User: Which sequence fits this backbone?
């Protein structure tokens, strides 16, 4: 019975070590997908002028606060 337990433990250790690189790539792709989705939402809001601000630091790089909205620097 102990030999069967040891074999099961060895199998799980080998399986976990074999799947670790795959799981790392899955997590990496999921993080990139989430970052891209958030970027698209933020970009759409910026293009529509829907991001409110009170100071220039409230806006992302390349934008400044004019009239309570983040606008591109070149749109003055």
Assistant:
């Amino acid at each position: 019975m102990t030999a069967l337990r040891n074999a099961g433990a060895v199998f799980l250790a080998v399986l976990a070590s074999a799947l670790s690189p795959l799981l790392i790539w899955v997590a990496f792709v999921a993080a990139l997908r989430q970052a891209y989705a958030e970027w698209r939402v933020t970009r759409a809001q910026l293009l529509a002028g829907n991001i409110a601000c009170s100071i220039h630091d409230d806006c992302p790089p390349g934008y400044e606060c004019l009239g309570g909205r983040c606008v591109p620097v070149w749109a003055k």
